[in-house]
Design goal:
The complex is a heterodimer of chains A (452) and B (178).
Chain A: H1 20-45, H2 59-68, H3 71-106, H4 117-122, H5 126-143, H6 167-172, H7 178-207, H8 212-217, H9 220-247, H10 260-285, H11 294-325, H12 328-338, H13 340-343, H14 346-363, H15 373-399, H16 408-429, H17 442-446
Helix pairs in contact in A: 1-3, 1-16, 3-5, 3-9, 3-10, 3-15, 3-16, 5-7, 7-9, 9-10, 10-11, 10-15, 11-14, 11-15, 14-15
Chain B: E1 8-14, H1 17-29, E2 36-38, H2 46-50, H3 57-83, H4 96-122, E3 143-148, H5 157-166, E4 174-177
Antiparallel strand pairs in B: 1-3, 1-4, 2-3
Helix pairs in contact in B: 3-4
Classes of the chains: A mainly alpha (452), B alpha+beta (178).
């Protein structure tokens, strides 16, 4: 309708209360996650859950299984692969929180100011996720060839006299070598986290302003934040591509795709948007963020809709070009996901397109659907599960082959990372007012209207 | 063909957006039916104030799009699968992933052409059609309101004129026959 009523900031609950109930629930979830992980490890090390098809099925499976060998280190690899999956997935969501802030600053966007504090807390998860990624990588290097997810880290891989020598990997070793890989990772982390802390500190400095009218005439802090955001966007564009080759594409090290960085960005971005939407709706249901209207939700819905389609576009592009050209060195990637191991990943591969493309496309198409909280919650949940599956399909075939599965280890890892993530968001939401009341565009955001 | 009877309109001219909007609200509250309003630029929420029904163009677009999708799939399957089967790149005759780009393009083409046709028909536009212009200043800096006298038979022309004058028109309302 025409003029909708604006809620005064005085009526807002500004201070988020991290309740003891939520805290104990999160600790309990974390505990359950750890217990399930340990239970899973015990079961796996006793030999449950392995599907060695080597004897019964063709030579491809035999060749593959030979790489994995005995179950003594099989369980270790499965645990590492799952921790790696969750760490990279949640690291992406945390990074997208900062990215969301940055592009809204650079675009001088007004609508998102009212929900700004939600993505602003995501960046605090970066130390946890990056810490686990760095620790996991070092652990793999320390444990040796049988335990690592990355074929290119094996000893003697670039040495022509070694029996491990691989000419293709040797050709890539100028980029893919342990010191450079590690240095890139640390530098990117420093840049992401440093720029995030700068943006956050500008946001908190704005809270201290006494004379808002005078600040509007010369918004110094805001201008600095726009400048920092522009730097972040450049850093992000480069680092996101490089980091997805490093962390995910280098698992299938003989294969490469120029679309991979895009696909990974789309996957992270749409999961990040789903997390923002879900958090905003849950906070609104608890009585916070009263100023968030159906108009704001409509924009978040449009974002999820658009970037689900974007993900499908780049993912299908990558598939179609490889399928059509039919060059063996390129098709290996999809061969593993469609044909190998009796089509072990075939169902998941097609289901990936259903849950991440068809479902959001059809459900979010209508205008009213993007404004209905129940539908948004269902779609955001489906998108998060769907893109976990996308990461699963990127990591598991190249590391575990047909020995992957979905059991205690997988669920345990998800619970651990999800509870840590929610704990980080909630504890940092409590550290600043829920609404950035001195942001120059706060009035525009309060009165935001889609005009239909 | 029977010649269409002429309609008589009363045309009110306003100076600014806020006067126009408040006049629309009060006149509609009194039960007057407004034919249409012409403004130099799109005014947000004008359709809400005028009480226009939500357009069904979106549904039309969806149906046109689905038609395009169906046509594309039938066309490609028939051509490559039955009429002249060819092996391309070692794939099946009917290789679904290959069909996706053409299907997408035909969906967009049918939806957009269909929407252009719908727009022309529903607005009575076409080649040689003379533009309906109540007051040419609505393309410059005035806001023009047209009231169909035939559809407001419960008011006399003088009452409507008086109502317009009481609600901020900037000049004496004129009558125009179309």
């Amino acid at each position: 309708m025409g003029a909708h009523k604006t809620i005064s900031l005085a009526d807002e609950k500004m201070q988020y209360e991290f309740t003891a109930k939520l805290k104990s629930r999160l600790m309990m979830t974390l505990g359950i996650g750890v217990v399930m992980l340990i239970l899973g490890i015990i079961l796996l090390s006793l030999g449950f859950g392995e599907t060695h098809h080597a004897a019964e099925h063709g030579k491809e499976a035999a060749k593959h299984s030979a790489e994995h060998g005995h179950h003594e280190y099989y369980w270790f690899k499965r645990v590492i692969a799952n921790l790696w999956l969750n760490a990279t997935f949640f690291n992406g969501i945390a990074l997208i929180g900062v990215f969301f802030l940055a592009f809204n600053y650079v675009a001088h966007a007004g609508w998102s100011v009212i929900i700004k504090r939600v993505p602003e807390t995501f960046g605090y998860f970066l130390p946890i996720s990056m810490g686990s990624i760095i620790a996991l990588f070092l652990l793999q290097i320390a444990m040796g060839d049988n335990y690592t997810l990355f074929h290119w880290t094996h000893a003697g891989i670039t040495d022509p006299s070694s029996k491990n020598y691989d000419a293709i990997i040797a050709g890539k070793s100028g980029f893919l070598n342990v010191p450079f890989f590690f240095a890139r990772m640390v530098i990117f982390f420093a840049l992401w986290y440093g720029l995030f802390r700068r943006l956050r500190s500008f946001s908190l400095q704005e809270e201290e302003i006494k004379d808002f009218k005078a600040y509007l005439k010369n918004p110094v802090i805001y201008n600095k934040a726009v400048y920092t955001s522009a730097i972040f966007l450049v850093v992000f564009a480069v680092s996101e591509s490089v980091i997805s080759w490093d962390w995910l594409m280098s698992i299938d090290v003989h294969w490469f795709s120029t679309m991979y960085g895009w696909q990974n960005f789309a996957s992270w971005f749409v999961s990040g948007l789903a997390t923002i939407t879900l958090t905003v709706i849950l906070l609104k249901e608890q009585g916070y963020l009263k100023s968030v209207t159906k108009h704001h939700l409509h924009d978040l819905g449009k974002f999820m809709f658009a970037f689900s389609v974007f993900w499908s576009y780049v993912t299908f592009c990558q598939f179609l070009l490889i399928y059509y050209a039919h060059i063996p060195e390129e098709t290996t990637y999809f061969n593993a996901r469609l044909n190998l191991w009796d089509g072990y990943y075939k169902f998941l591969f097609f289901f990936n397109f259903f849950i991440n493309f068809a479902f959001p496309l059809l459900v979010l198409m209508a205008k009213e659907a993007k404004r209905t909280t129940v539908i948004l919650k269902v779609v955001a949940g489906a998108i998060l599960m769907g893109h976990y599956l996308d990461f699963y399909l990127m990591i598991m075939p190249g590391t575990l082959g047909d020995n992957s599965g979905f059991g205690f280890v997988e669920i345990g890892c998800i619970l651990i990372f999800a509870s840590l993530f929610i704990y980080t968001i909630a504890s940092n939401l409590a550290k600043a007012p829920m609404i950035a009341k001195n942001h120059p565009f706060i009035k525009e955001s309060q009165n935001f209207n889609q005009f239909n | 063909m029977e010649k269409k009877e002429k309609q008589e309109f009363l045309v009110g001219v306003f100076d600014n957006e806020s006067k126009l909007i408040s006049a629309i609200d009060t006149l509609r509250a009194k039960g007057l039916k407004i034919h249409d309003v012409y403004t130099p630029y799109p005014v947000h929420d004008l359709d809400v104030h005028l009480g226009f029904k939500r357009t069904r163009l979106a549904r039309a677009a969806f149906l046109f799009g689905i038609t395009g999708t169906t046509l594309a799939i039938i066309m490609q399957s028939y051509m490559l699968g039955f009429a002249w089967p060819m092996i391309i790149g070692g794939k099946d005759h009917i290789a679904v992933p290959d069909f996706v780009p053409v299907t997408f393009e035909l969906t967009v083409l049918c939806a957009s052409l269909g929407m252009v046709a719908t727009f022309l028909i529903s607005n009575g536009l076409g080649p040689g059609k003379k533009a309906l212009m109540f007051d040419p200043r609505s393309t410059d800096d005035k806001y023009v309101m047209a009231i169909d006298l035939g559809k407001n038979s419960k008011f006399t022309k003088e009452t409507i004129e008086k109502m317009l004058l009481d609600n901020g028109v900037s000049e004496q309302p004129k009558t125009k026959e179309v």
